[in-house]
Design goal:
Helix content is about 25%, strand content about 40%. It has two helices and four strands, in the order βββαβα. The protein has helices spanning about 40-50, 60-65; strands at about 1-10, 15-20, 25-35, 55. It starts with a strand and ends in an 11-residue tail after the last helix.
Amino acid sequence: MKKINYEALAQKVLVVCVANFRETKELFDWSCYIDAVSGINHDLEYQRVATHGTKLNPKFAALLFPDLDIEKYRL
């Protein structure tokens, strides 16, 4: 199962977290991506960031999504 969350760092900057879970709902791995967007509709724009954005380094990603285990960050 995949869960995607996003946060707007500014009107035209999104960070998207993609977390993959096992069938047991245990976190398997995760990663975060950042990119500029038009800022018109984040609910539609996050998908492009998730597939084409720049991957964040693990330390910065952990600051934005502290509930996820940094040891499982996909490099």
